What we know:
Strand 1 (197-200) and strand 2 (203-206) form a beta hairpin. This protein has helices at 3-38, 44-53, 56-83, 90-107, 110-124, 129-157, 159-166, 170-193, 210-235, 243-260, 268-277, 279-311; strands at residues 197-200, 203-206. The chain is built from 12 helices and 2 strands; from the N terminus they run ααααααααββαααα.
Amino acid sequence: xxxxxxxxxxxxxxxxxxxxxxxxxxxxxxxxxxxxxxxxxxxxxxxxxxxxxxxxxxxxxxxxxxxxxxxxxxxxxxxxxxxxxxxxxxxxxxxxxxxxxxxxxxxxxxxxxxxxxxxxxxxxxxxxxxxxxxxxxxxxxxxxxxxxxxxxxxxxxxxxxxxxxxxxxxxxxxxxxxxxxxxxxxxxxxxxxxxxxxxxxxxxxxxxxxxxxxxxxxxxxxxxxxxxxxxxxxxxxxxxxxxxxxxxxxxxxxxxxxxxxxxxxxxxxxxxxxxxxxxxxxxxxxxxxxxxxxxxxxxxxxxxxxxxxxxxxxxxxxxxxxxxxxxxxx
Length: 330
C-alpha cells in the first residue's frame, strides 16, 4: 500500500476532527447569541431581585415540571425508535432527544432544526436517513396529538380565554373541539382496524400499532401538561392564577408559535399569555419560564451536542439495539 493513500486518510481524519470542533464552537456560539437576544431589554438587576424574592418552592416546582417535560419528551424518541424498527437503549434516546429538542425549541422550525440534530446522533448509531425520518414523523405526530387533546379540553372546559382571543362564539368553539376529538378518534381507529400501510401521493405511510398509538395519547398530552405546570409555577411568583387558565393560555400561545415559526416562540408566548392574563402582571414570571424551559436546556443541550460531535464516533454498523417483543415493526 502506497504512502499517499495513508496520508490522504490521515488528512481526512484531521479535517474531520477540526470540522467537528468548529461545528461545536458554532453551536455554542449560537446558543449564546439566542440567549443574549432573548434577554435584550431586560434589567439583569431587577431579574436577579425577582429570582431572590421568589418563593423557593415555586422555583423548585417550576424546575421539576421542566425536567418532567424533557423526560416525557425523551419517551417520544424512545417510542419513535420502536416504531421505526430500530429500538435503542433509553439513555441514547434521551441524549438525542434532549440535545435536539433543547436546540430546536429555541431555533424555531423544530421539525428541521431538531431533526438535523437527531440525524447527527442516530446516523452514528446505525439508522438510515429514512429511519430517522420515521422517528421525526412519529415524534411530530405525538406532539400534534398532545396539543390537540389539550386544545380540545381547553375549548370545552375553559373557553373564556379562547373566546377573548378568537372572537368566535361558544358554539363555534364547541364544534371545533368536537371536530378535534373526532379526528383523534379516527386516528386511533385507523391504527386499530385499518391496514398497517397506506399510500398518500405515492408515498407509503405505515401506521403504528395500537399499543404505540395509545402511548402517544399518554405521553403527548402529559408533556404539554407539564410545560403548562412549569409556566404556572413561574407565573406564581407574582400572580395567583388557576392552573387551567395558564394551561389554556399556553396551549393557545403554542398554537400561535407553531403557526408563526418564531424561534422559541420568542415574543409570541409573551404576547399571547400577556394578553390573556395581563401583560403587566406576568412579565417576570414569563422570564423565569424562559430560563427554566428554554435558556437553561439550550445551554446544556448545545454543550452535549458539541461534546458528542467531538467524542462520539460514527459506527459502520448499527449500535446494539434494545429488543422488545412488541416492536411495532412489520
